[in-house]
Amino acid sequence: MTLALSARLLFAVVASLALGLSVQDTPLELRFIDVGQGDAVLITLGGQAVLVDAGRGDDFVVVLAELQVDSLVAAIASHNHDDHIGGMDAVLADYPVGRYFANGRPPQNDNARAVERWLVARRVAKVIGSGEILLADARITVFPSTLDPATASENNSSLGVLVERGAFRALLTGDSESDELIGWLAAGAIPDVDVLKAAHHGARNGVTPGWLDRTKPEVVVVSVGAGNGYGHPAPWALRYYQLNGRKVFRTDLDGTVIVKVDRDGRYQIQATGPVTR
User: Fold this and answer.
1) Per-residue confidence of the chain (277 residues) as pLDDT tens digits?
2) Which helix (H) or strand (E) holds 259?
3) Rounded CA gap, 88 and 56, in Å?
4) How far, rounded to the nearest angstrom, does the alpha carbon of residue 166 sit from its chain's CA centroid?
5) In what order do the strands lie in the sheet with 247-250?
6) Which of 21, 54, 58, 247 has its CA 20 to 30 A from that of 84?
7) CB-based contacts of 236, cutoff 8 Å, min separation 6
8) Whole-model pTM?
9) Whole-Å CA distances, 56 to 80, 82, 85, 172, 255
C-alpha cells in the first residue's frame, strides 16, 4: 500500500469517526408543530428528518422550509383524515421523500387521492402498516392497528409510531380511539414511555385508565387548535392526563412543543408559545 493511499484511508476513517461523534453529540428533536386543529410531528437528527402527519393545508411546506428541511428519510401518515394529511401532497410535491408509510386504507377524500397521485409521480416507495426507520442511533418503529380493517374506522386504523433513543421513548398514535388502544394493549405491543402524544387531539375516546397505566408517560403533548368546534381536549381526558403530576403541553396554549433527547435518552422540553391563526 502506498503512503498516499494510506493517508487517504486514514483521512476517511478519521472523517467517518468525526461524523459519528458529531451525530452522537447532536440532540434528537421531536417537534410537535402547532398546526391548529391537526397533527404534524417532525423528527430530526444529524441533518436527517422524518415527518409524521402534515397538518391540514398545503402551506405546511412553508413550515418545513422555515425549519430548513431539504428532504425526508420518510413521511408517515397516521391515517387519511384531512387534518393529518392535508399538507402531505404538497410535501411530496416539493421534497424528496425516501419512503411513505400508510395504513393501507383506500383513499376516500381529495387529499388522500392527491397523495396517491404524488406517490406515483415521484416514485416514492409506499410501505403499508409496519416498518423501521433508523436515524443514526435513534430508532423509529411504525406498527399497524390490531383491529379488523373491514370493520375498523379510519381513526381506529391509525398507525402507531414509537421513537427511541438511549433510554428515551415517545409514542404517537394518530387519532386512535379506545378500541384501537385496547387492541394494542391486549397484543402486548405498548411499552412504557417518557412522552405520549395524546390520541385524537385529547378527545374523551382517545384515552383509558389502562392506557395510561401501561404507557406511564411523564409528559403528554396534545396537538389541538384553539377554539375548535370538537371540544378538544375534553376536560375528562385532561384530568386523566394530569394525574400523578404528569406535565401536559397543548399546542393551542403552548405553541410548538420541542423535545430534545441526548444520546443516553435524557430529554428536555421547550415550548415556543402559541401562534395566532
Assistant:
1) 443 434 433 333 334 434 455 777 899 999 999 999 999 999 999 999 999 999 999 999 999 999 999 999 999 999 999 999 999 999 999 999 999 999 999 999 999 999 999 999 999 999 999 999 999 999 999 999 999 999 999 999 999 999 999 999 999 999 999 999 999 999 999 999 999 999 999 999 999 999 999 999 999 999 999 999 999 999 999 999 999 999 999 999 999 999 999 999 999 999 998 754 3
2) strand 257-261
3) 9
4) 18
5) 131-135, 138-143, 160-165, 168-172, 195-197, 219-222, 247-250
6) 247
7) 204
8) 0.91
9) 11, 6, 6, 18, 16
Nearest CA-CA partner of 172 in 271, 101, 253, 264: 101
**Residue with cell string 368546534:** 229
Cβ neighbors of 151 (< 8 A, separation 6 or more) are none
**Alpha-helical regions (H) of the chain:** 3-24, 60-66, 82-85, 88-94, 110-121, 178-186, 209-215, 235-242, 251-254
Cell match 402547532: residue?
A: 34
C-beta of residue 163 within 8 angstroms of C-beta of residue 135? no
Query: Cell 384501537 appears where?
Result: 180
